[in-house]
Amino acid sequence: MGAKTQQVSFRQMVESDLDIVAQLEAESFSDTWSISMLEEELHNKLSTYIVMELAGKVIGYAGFMLVVGEADITRVAVFKEYRGQGFGNALTAAFVQKAWELEAEAITLDVRESNIAAQKAYEKSGFKSVGVRPNFYDKPREGAVIMWLYK
Predict the structure, then answer these.
(1) How far is Cα 61 from Cα 17, in angstroms, rounded to an integer?
(2) What is the chain's mean pLDDT, rounded?
(3) Regions of the chain short of the pLDDT cut 50
């Protein structure tokens, strides 16, 4: 991790984060979740969401749903101005650690085929690609690379 990424901290996402996380959603995803969707996830007993802060400012977030020992990563995003600096790797390490703390035995996620940077970041954390779901994503239509990490 670079010097900048060493200054980040992680904490549980709370309702007061919803506005900034909604902005991050709009910047990062074509299937943007609304504030009400984010709030629903925040109160879902199966879901866990963390935010990454730099100098007290939220710069990224991630979440997963834990069911029967499997953590299914639902969202991972870092604001564009912080991408390519190791923050995504730090966020990945944090959500992996949180999943293990919550007794997950395996973690899975999907990522757009064109998102090579994210795939490489996940591979650095030990995730392995197990296949592609064709036409999984919309806007644009694209396959999803399915990745797994086992404890």
Answers:
(1) 10
(2) 93
(3) 1, 3
0.85 exceeded by the pTM?
yes
Output the pLDDT for position 139: 84
Contact predicate 112/144, CB 8 Å: yes
Asked if 75 and 62 touch (Cβ cutoff 8 Å), the reply is yes
Residue 106: partners with Cβ closer than 8 Å, 6 or more residues away: 69, 70, 71, 148, 149, 150, 151
In terms of Cβ atoms closer than 10 Å to its own Cβ (0-12, 13-18, 19+), residue 52 is: buried
Instruction: Please give the sequence-ordered ranges of beta strands (E in DSSP) within the chain, or none if there are none.
Output: 8-12, 47-54, 57-67, 70-78, 106-112, 128-137, 142-150
Q: Which two tokens stand for residue 32?
A: 């943007």
Give counts: helices (H), strands (E), the chain: 4, 7
List the Cα angle 75/28/65 in 5-degree steps. Answer: 5
Residue type present at position 7: Q
Strand order across the 128-137 sheet:
8-12, 47-54, 57-67, 70-78, 106-112, 142-150, 128-137
> What pLDDT does 1 receive?
47
Instruction: Give how far Cα 144 sits from Cα of 92, 99, 138, Å.
Output: 18, 22, 10
What amino acid is encoded at 37 in this protein?
Answer: M
